[in-house]
Design a protein that fits this description.
Radius of gyration: 33 Å
Low-confidence stretches: none
Structural class: alpha+beta
Strand content: 15-25%
Number of strands: 19
Number of helices: 13
Strand order of the largest sheet: 8-10-9-17-14-13
Mean pLDDT: 80
Shape: elongated
Distance between the termini: 76 Å
Number of domains: 2
Length: 496
């Protein structure tokens, strides 16, 4: 009887079920813990990859040492820590990270990167020209071992460890707004001197650049033209964008630029001259409009402006604007009659005569270190700025009676150097390369740059000189003066 009762009894049955299912429950629990550990470790590694990629990409500004600086940013700027791997609490070190520098990315994110064609091998030690080509950086966090709590080998796995990794791709681009819609064919193309080197070398920035309008003779280093303005194509929109204090034009370096064709020099000349307190043609009605105010310093070597704000283009002795390079007095010098012409001067300009004409009896500014020698001659832009920020110099009469104070403009907002109206911006194109490679619009932009307008565009006997005379101020945020600080925005973003 007792045996039968024992056989029918259900007491203790749960213990059997627990004994059978407990290993599975524990196993699933351990798997959940391991999955959480791996996920959080991968999350920490991915945060590190993203941060390192962004830090490195921020240095890819098309400079000759871009990759070198990007590697230093990875090594020194950031500290990323994780604590769930077999290393315990571990701070990522350079040996944990691999950086690959790329010239391009596939248009489709699902397409693998073509390392054979797009990667710049050993970019941190590559040539400056190669480093300037780096547009993107892929940062890979090397596999990091984590040993699972769950005995995976019990189920036939080869190991109880996992090795999560992470990667990120970031890139650098530059956008510009409030930008004068000019393009310039790189005057230094083919000289062996990069724009970066020119911007950081006083002797190069001091060289006068003669810009000749592009046209039937084709593009060559030093020719210039116009970009489609913010409101679209059209002479009126172009003219207004050049004349306004804050033009609406915006451009992205990575998108390239499109050219405004058919623009004529007449309206453009009038637009440029508003910056010199000269209001001609349709701009005569703008002389009381602060949106078209002139520069703070408009000294230009011209006689008194008439009531219609047109100057005497032949003022006589005692007047002198900032002069051109000495070699420009003879068309055969400076290579200006070559084919194609060389439109860069040699940086040798007559500081002494300019200063004695416009500031008779006044010494060079204290502490400037200026002298009319190869070693100590300033740029014309530096002289202009010294005059602009010293009211006694700006108001000082030349031998002919001209000072630098605007007299035609009568708007309510006074002239100022914010922004500096003697500065124009331009997209710099390698026109010879574009022509040789038969590239089509939108054309690639080598860099955006700022330039100093040395003199207005004159009209003499009904004919106007279509050439612009300028100095390089800077590219990006490199070079003299304000470079592009007022118009440029660097964009660094993750792509993958």
């Amino acid at each position: 009887m007792r045996w039968k009762e024992f056989c029918r009894s259900q007491e203790g049955a749960s213990l059997v079920f627990v004994a059978v299912t407990l290993p599975a429950l524990v196993g699933f629990g351990l798997l959940a813990v391991d999955a959480s550990r791996v996920y959080n470790l991968h999350y920490d590694l991915q945060k590190g990859a993203d941060a390192f990629a962004l830090a490195a990409a921020a240095e890819l500004d098309r400079s000759g040492d871009a990759c070198e600086r990007a590697d230093r940013a990875i090594d020194n700027l950031l500290a990323n820590q994780h604590s769930l791997s077999d290393l315990g609490i571990h701070t990522l070190v350079p040996g944990d990270i691999t950086a690959n520098y790329l010239t391009e990315l596939p248009a489709d994110d699902d397409t693998p990167i073509d390392y054979g064609n797009d990667e710049i091998a050993n970019c941190p030690t590559a040539t400056p020209d190669e480093q300037r080509q780096a547009r993107f950086v892929e940062v890979v966090i090397n596999p990091t071992q984590i040993t699972s709590i769950f005995p995976a080998t019990f189920l036939g796995a080869a190991s109880n460890s996992l090795q999560p990794s992470a990667s990120a791709v970031a890139g650098f681009g530059q956008n510009v707004c409030k930008f004068t819609p000019f393009y310039i064919c790189n005057p230094w193309e083919g000289t062996g001197i990069s724009l970066e080197e020119a911007a950081n070398d006083l002797t190069e920035r001091r060289r006068l650049i003669e810009l000749r309008p592009s046209g039937g003779t084709g593009e060559f280093p030093g020719s210039f033209g116009y970009l489609e303005a913010h409101g679209g194509p059209g002479a009126a929109e172009l003219r207004d964008s050049i004349a306004r204090v804050n033009p609406g034009a915006c451009f992205a370096q990575d998108d390239g630029v499109e050219i405004e064709t058919g623009a004529v020099i007449g309206p453009v000349r009038q637009a440029i001259n508003t910056r010199f307190d000269i209001y001609e043609g349709s701009f005569n009605s703008k002389k009381n409009d602060p949106n078209y105010r002139p520069a703070l310093n408009v000294r230009k070597g011209l006689g008194t402006l008439g009531s219609d704000c047109n100057p005497d283009w032949d003022p006589g002795a005692g007047f002198m604007g900032l002069p051109r390079d000495d070699c420009f007095s003879d068309p055969a010098t400076c290579g200006r009659e070559a084919d194609p012409p060389t439109l860069l001067g040699d940086g040798d300009w007559d500081l002494t005569t300019y200063w004695d004409t416009n500031h008779p009896g006044t010494p060079f500014p204290a502490g400037s270190g200026w002298a009319d020698t190869e070693a100590s001659r300033p740029t014309r832009y530096e002289v202009y700025r010294a005059e602009a920020f010293d009211s006694s110099l700006n108001e000082e009469d030349s031998l002919g009676g001209e000072d630098g104070v605007p007299i035609c403009y009568s708007g309510g907002t006074p002239p100022s150097n914010d922004p500096d109206r003697r500065i124009v911006y331009a997209a710099v194109l390698n026109c010879q390369e574009i022509e040789d490679d038969e590239l089509e619009e939108p054309y690639p932009v080598e860099t955006f740059a700022s330039f100093f307008l040395i003199e207005p565009l004159p009209t003499t006997g009904g004919a106007s000189d279509p050439n612009l005379y300028i100095e390089l101020v800077g590219i990006n945020n490199e070079g003299g003066g304000e470079a592009l600080t007022n118009v440029a925005r660097d964009d660094v973003q993750l792509y993958r």
